[in-house]
Amino acid sequence: MTVLVNVIVTLGMLYVVPAGLRLIDPVRFLRTARRWPLAAVPGALCLWLPRGLPATALAAPYAAACLALAVAAVLRLWRTRSFTPPAIAVATALVSPSIAATALVAERAGYRLFGFDLDILALTVPHFHFAGFTAALVAGLVCRAVGGRSGTGGLARGAACSVPAGTLLVLLGYFVDDWAELLGAVVLTGGMWAVALLTWREIRPAGPDRTTRTLLATSAAVLVATMLLALWWAVGEATGITHPTLTWMAATHGLGNALGFALCSVLAWRRLTAESSVVETSAVEARTTDARTTDARTAET
Question: What is this structure's pTM?
Answer without folding.
Answer: 0.87
